[in-house]
């Protein structure tokens, strides 16, 4: 376990000297806000469902109300949750680094609530919905007795504005993420199992492009290799320590 008082010096230096830092986050970053990760067992009334069986176009076609209500439950979880110190540290890093891009697979909007502004949402955002027929995006919608509500423009069912299994990622977001990974000099992969493409390839692409890469996760073993750091740690504990160690003189309040 990498603890705050045993940070790899090479990574602290790389963070301080980086010209362009890119961070890729997964569900592990939101876990300390109480949001279950994708591969945690589902809890409560959703315990009997597997997310992979709900987050698909087929599931929505088969039972739109069930899928809509699963996202409504997740939206409630997210609304009741707060950004944790890991989210806040990434928002601070964006203010301190010469250049910073955050790429997230998370759909909970917690990075933005923590103050991150340069955010690429690879898998969408469950706080938005979109027309299942024409794609128009909405941030508010009517409560109806028999959800999903109809699109106000065409009447087709509204659906969460997220990427489901088997669907393509938003091309513009993917292109921006790829460009960030190939041009940064430090790439942080945080709280992601790295099981789902194309996000899973981004750390490899960054490394192949000459960047230093750090993987912060609970299912890695601590190791330091050439331009590669593996840190077994909780993002909410490690990220604040890493940012403070790299920028010791920054005023935590104003920057
Ligand atoms: N700090 C750091 N890492 C953590 C923490 C934590 N506090 N808690 C859990 N983790 C790690 C786990 O060890 C795991 O490797 O976060 C990772 C979460 O993995 P997943 O649940 O697979 O989530 P993610 O990688 O984001 O999934 C990617 O798959 O299901 C699809 O679209 C969905 O965006 C999701 C994508």
How would you describe the overall organization of this protein?
The chain is α/β, with parallel strands linked by helices and 255 residues long. It folds into two domains: 164 residues, TPP-binding domain (Rossmann fold, 3-Layer(aba) Sandwich), CATH 3.40.50.1220; 78 residues, 2-Layer Sandwich (SIR2/SIRT2 'Small Domain'), CATH 3.30.1600.10. It contains ten helices and ten strands. The protein has a seven-stranded mixed sheet with strand order 3-2-1-7-8-10-9, sandwiched between helices. A three-stranded antiparallel sheet has the order 5-4-6, with helices on one face. β9 and β10 form a beta hairpin. α1 crosses α10 and α8 runs parallel beside α9. The protein is elongated, with a radius of gyration of 19 Å. The two termini are 29 Å apart. Adenosine-5-diphosphoribose (APR) binds next to α2, β8 and α10.
Question: What hetero molecules are in the model?
Answer: adenosine-5-diphosphoribose
Structural class: alpha/beta
Helix content: 25-40%
Distance between the termini: 29 Å
Strands, total number? 10
The low-pLDDT segments are none
On the 0 to 100 scale, the average pLDDT is 93
Largest sheet: 7 strands, mixed
Briefly note the CATH topology name of the largest domain.
Rossmann fold
CATH H-level superfamily title of the largest domain: TPP-binding domain
Shape: elongated
Strand content: 15-25%
User: What is the total domain count?
Assistant: 2
Key attributes of the depicted protein:
about 260 residues, alpha/beta, seven-stranded mixed beta sheet, 10 helices, about 20% strand, binds adenosine-5-diphosphoribose
